């Protein structure tokens, strides 16, 4: 799988809802990532390398940090309002690399953590009407393997995420069309 990612023969597409209004133009988020222990609990988080930030060492000076390249393509953004008037964005993403928590780390570094993200978001981003992390792997396509056939799997939105999306109000006609398509089309793409 890593070789196929490197050769760009894997497509991993996601849909998510993030806090705030993300800019609507398509773009590439390519900040480097580093996995480190969370201060909040005993889990690993991924941090984003800032432009010009020191990449020094991990907890012990003798252990160099390994910053990994990561590429997250923001393909499509629609602005929404939550039930309490919260500004939210419906985002279609394609990964060009497959790093742990890559989408969560990149969007949080942009100032737009995923709705329901208690690890990368702020406490105020945990919305009462949002019972889960609003991130869904919609499609996985893998280029020809040994036999040469392509595998392409699309996964419909789960019911709990559909319930969250039904609570949101699109801020444009195009946004209404996109939300309806996600909720009504079983294939979703």
TrEMBL record:
Domain named Pseudouridine synthase RsuA/RluA-like: residues: 4-109
Pfam family, one: PseudoU_synth_2
Gene3D superfamilies (alphabetical): Pseudouridine synthase (3.30.2350.10)
GO molecular function, one term: pseudouridine synthase activity
Domain of life: Eukaryota
UniProt GO BP: enzyme-directed rRNA pseudouridine synthesis
Similarity remark: Belongs to the pseudouridine synthase RluA family.
Protein name: Pseudouridine synthase RsuA/RluA-like domain-containing protein
Species of provenance: Polarella glacialis
